[in-house]
Amino acid sequence: SSALFMTISSVEKRTTGKAGAISTQILQNGKRIAFIQEGAEKGDRERYWQAVLRQDRETLRGFFHPDAWVNWHNTGERFTVEEFIRANCEYPGEWEGELERVEKTGSLIITAAHVFSREQGLSFHVTSFLREREGKIAALDEYWGDDGPPPKWRQEKKLGRPIPREGAPG
Fold first, then answer.
1. The 3-state secondary structure of the chain, one letter per residue
2. What's the predicted TM-score (pTM) here?
3. Residues 16 and 23: beta-carbon distance below 8 Å
């Protein structure tokens, strides 16, 4: 097993004019190795996820570059923008959800969201990796997972414990 360690020489944090966003640069030996924009980025992603959950075709279309593609790795499928919008908007049921986390490094945006049905009792977590070009999503890789109890074999071995809720002692 090998480990990778890096020395970070400085971190700069400043408030920008875009909806009070906070920009963070991480520098290594004077070279920017990561840039994270908090606040505005999460707002953009929240609007995107609201359009997904509402199954709002026109709003969704506005987030994507015309030649973008979407990969759903769990099922091995690749979609054009129009196929993705159709698959999302024709998916049965009514959906709700919560954007739990947004991270950005360079042109890569990573989101983690909780999606659940209003009437069917289904619940999922999805991790999305978005690449943007010209301010629009050019590539989207998603990994969907069913929410549920741990497998019986782990329960029998008493491995793990429930994840503490935010603000709870952990």
1. CCCCCCCCCEEEEEECCCCCCEEEEEEECCEEEEEEEECHHHHHHHHHHHHHHHCCHHHHHHHEEEEEEEEECCCCEEEEHHHHHHHHHCCCCCEEEEEEEEEEECCEEEEEEEEEECCCCCEEEEEEEEEEECCEEEEEEEEEEECCCCCHHHHHCCCCCCCCCCCCCC
2. 0.71
3. yes
In contact, 128 and 115? CB cutoff 8 Å: no
Gap between the Cα atoms of 124 and 115, Å rounded: 5
Half-sphere exposure of 35 (CA within 13 A, CB side): 9
pLDDT tens digits for 82-100?
999 999 999 999 999 999 9
- Residues 54 and 21: beta-carbon distance below 8 Å: no
